[in-house]
Design a protein that fits this description.
- Helix content is 32%, strand content 20%.
- By secondary structure, the protein is of the alpha/beta class.
- It has five domains: 118 residues, 3-Layer(aba) Sandwich (GIY-YIG endonuclease); 189 residues, Rossmann fold (3-Layer(aba) Sandwich); 237 residues, P-loop containing nucleotide triphosphate hydrolases (Rossmann fold); 58 residues, no CATH class; 98 residues, 2-Layer Sandwich (Alpha-Beta Plaits), CATH 3.30.70.
- The strands form six sheets. It has a seven-stranded parallel β-sheet, with helices on both faces.
- Bound molecules: adenosine-5'-triphosphate (ATP) and zinc ion.
- Adenosine-5'-triphosphate (ATP) binds next to helix 6.
- Zinc ion binds next to loops.
């Protein structure tokens, strides 16, 4: 007897097969079962998506037989299949592509014997009750956040300052869910696991009582074998807590009860190839699906997002009441504003003692003439000599004092303003650490000839190659094209070609010169280190470099955004952003949001130890000190920043008030890429596609970096005030895009793709 099935398999992105294929089986199979099926001459992994009870009408001889079933694996749940269907539909990709990409790659390769061997290993239950005696006492704000979270069912946004102890809230929320239900599973997502090696250890330690192998990691840094192992443990329900990156949102977790998304604003939650999903958005959707799951009536599945600088989308959702908001404004160990005030009045001015010796920064500034430095509060008037105004700490919740350096009033071409240099030197002399942040790696972004104007352009991209002094190369950060630095200008022969601008490599060198005479308390020379993608290429390098920072072996740490986020540094009292202006006037409407959160995150690395928090500072060098973004930063005032950005976006109908998609096209010639997009849009116009009257496609334009690796790139923005209309339109437009692609004039098109809810425009 034959059984008829719909099976999804991984289909090439642009093949004609979008939906499931029909197969036949001699024995009954469950929906969700993993099978091996013939496809062309190959045998591929597939997922049974549906049964066809009336398949008997089909001609048996035309329908191929399922080749095998992955025995021992429970079928993928209905909720998982719904999640995959939604993802494929919403992000305009094929079902098979999304479904199969969500499975560990090794699953496709193992034969039955190998798989059985993996599944054989019995997991013995070694769990015990959690010993809560040595847990730290929660702060009042942490207690309140957890209580409010428990009392609600909506998606929650934990709006917690840097260092307010958000991680502890995640740990407690997870512990509670796991203790209530012996089968419950928790998924904790972080932007990049490799950046915070401490975190996994912290989770493993906290949940050691669950027994061996109950906490697993799921991210792309794992070997294929490790990834399979984690996935199988999650799918079987053995793993109780999964710590993962964006890919983990699509893992099979049959008893999922809580999803945590740490640093929910982070751009790395958006997948940038294939199905360009937002793992944060899918987490919210998944929680809803899991809660509605009637096969496992296990009550609600909650989602907890956390950030000090939430995405404007999530923030807006808290304003409309769609999400619940949990506030933690104060850093751990810092008395609340009211307490601070009280102690200050009774104990006289206690801050004078703790503040850095001398409002010396201010002196240093005025000695150099004028008021080039616009510090946070009006210090000149209010601050007692050597301190800052008494209420500052309580108001700042232990966050660093933000000082803006007006670069218009600093010596020409200076990279580090003299007052900032003084402040760093003082830190070194006191044995404190400073973190200098510059979001540009390499030695100099451009090498140029001042005689003829030659610049180190990449021959394959519309971008300059970056000068890396360490191996004397010019490297393109877009296509990777690398060459030795020429001895003389390739265009005019002048031997005097010089670096223009600064990257982290040059900044490190420059700081070493500037601080050469400065001694540490032990009399030794200052120690400067750099952490960026170049210094951490080797496995384990980042870990050992971070360890030496934590151990206090480094006085001044220079780096890119790699060091600005997430690390729990305990001895840093000064953070400086050397050149953040670029993002202020970007054409990308999300650039200010990204800059603000990056600076808040960076500032959040300073003064994390409450003993230092009062004396900690965040310096920002800028030519636009009065820019509202820096005003808000000065006050650590995300809500004010968000209100202003949201008002602008509302006026312009942009996210979260409007919805958009980008269609990107790549070809050897720009005209072909643009022509393809415009032709497809014209076809849509002609056919009056569903939703078209609420959707605006804009003319195709070259992408900001127009050419990469000799491929011309163009994009078309499509906007709508209605998410549903945009979705209907895109779904109907897909076939037209395929049709257009087949026209002779667009033969040379290399590829095209739709990006729904793009994060960079
Ligand atoms: N209740 C508490 N009592 C004492 N220390 C705590 C408490 N909660 C958290 N901590 C400690 O405070 C520090 C900061 O906490 P955590 O790293 O969770 O902050 P965060 O809010 O995640 O900050 P960021 O957003 O900057 O990563 C950590 O060293 C943590 O161990
Ligand atoms: Zn290039």
């Amino acid at each position: 007897m034959s059984y008829w099935l719909q099976v999804v398999v991984a289909t090439p992105a642009h093949s004609a097969i979008a939906g499931p294929l029909t197969y036949r089986s001699e024995s009954p199979l469950a929906v969700g079962a993993l099978v091996r099926v013939p496809l062309g001459r190959r045998e591929v992994l597939g997922v049974v998506w549906d049964l066809l009870p009336d398949g008997g009408a089909l001609q048996a001889e035309n329908i191929r037989l399922v080749a095998g079933v992955l025995e021992g694996l429970a079928p993928l749940s209905a909720t998982w299949r719904k999640l995959v269907s939604f993802t494929a539909g919403y992000y305009q990709r094929s079902l098979g592509e999304v479904a199969l990409a969500a499975l560990p790659p090794q699953l496709r390769e193992l034969n039955a014997v190998q798989l059985t061997r993996r599944l054989k290993r019995p997991v013995v239950d070694t769990s015990r009750a959690q010993d809560t005696s040595d847990l730290i006492a929660l702060s009042a704000q942490q207690e309140r956040a957890l209580a409010e979270f428990d009392a609600d069912t909506r998606p929650a946004l934990l709006f917690g300052a840097t260092g307010s102890g958000k991680t502890e809230v995640y740990l407690r929320a997870a512990a509670k869910v796991l203790a209530q239900d012996p089968a419950a599973q928790v998924l904790v997502m972080v932007p990049e696991i490799n950046l915070t090696p401490q975190l996994q250890a912290r989770f493993e330690e906290r949940f050691a009582h669950l027994g061996k192998e109950r906490v697993v990691a799921l991210h792309s840094g794992l070997t294929p074998a490790q990834r399979l192992k984690s996935w199988l443990a999650a799918h079987a329900g053995q793993a109780r807590l999964v710590l993962g990156t964006r890919m983990a949102v699509l893992a099979s977790l049959p008893h999922l009860r809580l999803l945590v998304v740490d640093e929910e604003h982070d751009p790395s939650y958006k997948q940038q190839e294939g199905a360009r999903y937002s793992a944060r958005d899918l987490a919210v959707y998944r929680a809803k699906l899991e809660s509605a799951d009637t096969d496992h009536p296990h009550g609600d599945c909650r989602v907890l997002l956390g950030s000090a600088t939430p995405s404007l989308e999530s923030w807006q959702a808290t304003l409309t009441g769609r999400y619940q908001r949990l506030n933690m404004s104060e850093r751990i160990g810092v008395p609340s504003a009211i307490d601070t005030e009280a102690t200050q009045f009774s104990d006289g001015p206690p801050l004078g003692k703790l503040a850095p010796p001398g409002g010396s920064e201010l002196h240093a500034v005025s000695e150099r003439g004028g008021l080039p430095l616009s510090a946070g509060p009006p210090q000149g008037k209010l601050a007692p000599p050597g301190g800052r105004e008494p209420h500052a700490v309580g108001e700042r919740g232990g966050l660093p004092l933000v000082r803006r350096v007006d670069m218009n009033h600093q010596p020409k071409h200076c990279t580090i303003a003299p007052p900032l240099l003084d402040a760093i030197a003082q830190r070194v002399a006191r044995g404190e650490q400073s973190l200098i942040f510059l979001n540009r790696r390499g030695y100099a972004p451009v090498l140029a000839c001042h005689d003829c104007g030659w610049k180190s352009e990449c021959p394959h991209c519309s971008a300059y190659r970056v000068f890396h002094k360490i191996d004397r190369t010019l490297r393109c950060h877009h296509c990777g094209f690398t060459e030795r630095v020429p001895r003389a200008c390739p265009s005019c022969g002048n031997i005097d070609i010089a670096p223009v601008g600064r990257g982290t490599e040059r900044l490190e060198e420059h700081l070493a010169e500037l601080l050469a005479g400065v001694r540490r308390p032990d009399g030794e020379a200052v120690r400067i280190a750099r952490i960026d993608a170049d210094t951490t290429r080797l496995k384990g390098a980042l870990e050992s470099q971070l360890a030496s920072v934590h151990a206090g072996e480094v006085d001044v740490l220079v780096g890119t955004q790699m060091i600005a986020k997430g690390h729990d540094f305990r001895h840093i009292t000064l953070v400086a952003a050397v050149n953040p202006d670029g993002a202020l006037f970007s054409s990308d409407f999300r650039a200010p949001e990204r800059l603000f959160s990056l600076l808040m995150q960076a500032g959040g690395r300073a003064g994390r130890d409450a003993r230092h928090s009062q004396a900690s500072e965040m310096w920002v060098q800028t030519f636009h000190p009065a820019h509202p973004l820096f005003e808000a930063l000065k006050r650590h005032d995300y809500p004010v920043f968000a209100a202003r950005e949201l008002a602008e976006r509302q006026a312009a109908g942009m996210s979260p008030f409007g919805y958009s998609a980008l269609v990107r096209a790549e070809a050897k010639e720009q005209s072909v890429a643009q022509g393809f997009l415009n032709a497809a849009a014209a076809a849509a116009q002609l056919r009056q596609l569903p939703g078209h009257d609420a959707v605006t496609p804009y003319p195709a334009v070259p992408m900001t970096i127009q050419r990469v690796a000799n491929i011309e790139r163009a994009q078309m923005l499509v906007e709508s005030p209605s998410r549903a209309a945009l979705q209907r339109f895109l779904a109907a437009w897909q076939p037209l895009l395929f049709d257009t692609r087949r026209q002779a004039e667009f033969k040379s098109l290399v590829r095209w793709a739709i990006d729904v809810d793009p994060i960079a425009i």
